[in-house]
Structure formats: C-alpha cells, structure tokens
Sequence to fold (212 residues):
Amino acid sequence: MNSYKVNKIKDKEVIILGDGNNPIWKKANSLTDFSSPWDNEPVKKIEFKAIHNSEKIFFQFKVDDDQTHIHLSEDKNDSINSSDRVELFFRSDASLDPYYCLEIDTTARIMDFKARPNRKLDFNWNWPSKDIEVKSSVNKDYFVVEIAISLQSLKDLNLLKDRFIETGIYRAKYNQQKDTSFEPTWITWVNPNTETPDFHTSTSFGLLELEN
Fold:
C-alpha cells in the first residue's frame, strides 16, 4: 500500500491561511506522485502536503492550473460535483463500510458525505463544522486548498488507528470540449487498477502515517 509520512509540529503554530505561503509547510513531506490511469494526456503538477500537531491534522493541495472551472448551479452539491476540485476519502478498513468523503472546490466549498459499498452515498451526513476548517485561493497559474481536521473527529469515526489513517487522495479536473461542454479528467495518488475511473473502490486508498 502506498504510504505518506505526516510530520509532527508544535501545537501553537498557525497553519490554515489558504494561500500556501505559511513557512510551516516546509516541514511537511511533498507528495507529487499523481496520475490519471485512464487518460493519455499528461497531468499538471499536483503537490500534496500534510502535517499534524496533538489536536489537528492539516492538509494542503497546491495544483498547477491556469483555467479553473466552477460550475454554477443552485444546488451546491451539483455545482461542486461538476467543478474543479480536490478530494479526500477516509475509510475504517478495506470493506469500505463505511467510508467518509470530502470534495472541495477552488472556492473552499465542501461536499461531504458518508458512503458505503456500491456507491451508497448519504449526503445528509456532514463533517461536524467545529471539527473542520477549509481555506483556498486561486492564482494565475495555480490554486491552493488547505484543510484542518480535528484528530478527535477522526478517532470518533474510527478512522485514526494507532497513528494510521487509510486515505484516498484525488483531483477532478474539468476540461472544456470543442462543443463548449466540460468533461472531467480523474486524477489519483494510488492507481486503483480499474478499467474505468473509480475512486469508490478499496484499491484507490493509501496510508497516512502520523509521526509520534
């Protein structure tokens, strides 16, 4: 299983600014091993970082993109689901029963839901607002999404086990077609080895290991 080491920092250090410029991120390992196994076109650079303290885990996506797409819709979930975004899935174990999903667009809107095998998705479930914070920024050539999640909420959901979190890390990039419609390219840290794009499968997850 692919793994990533989450370095530990001091509790009082401020993390979530949303612009990617906090020097504290220099203490995090850089993960850039992303691909789209179902698409022959090259993938622009995605840099993922994570660090933690005794209370929270912090995630950062820095994504090269000079044409971010936001789909406008009255329904927030529909809008996010058709927009450029980053995604984190967390599972208790390989059974995926259940697993929890965070999909966040470039404006820091969150689509969060609880899921079970065969894409049984519960959009009435939400990550407790007191336990999650998201900030983002869009620049000329890239965008940044930063996320803070309380470790206690991960423990309560049986997702943090002895310093390990089984995690899927993904990106959806929407590209304009000749007919002006937008179609997604699906990008993942771990190749699930599926014939068609699928993040909702146990083979798409890796392992985050929190430093003591």
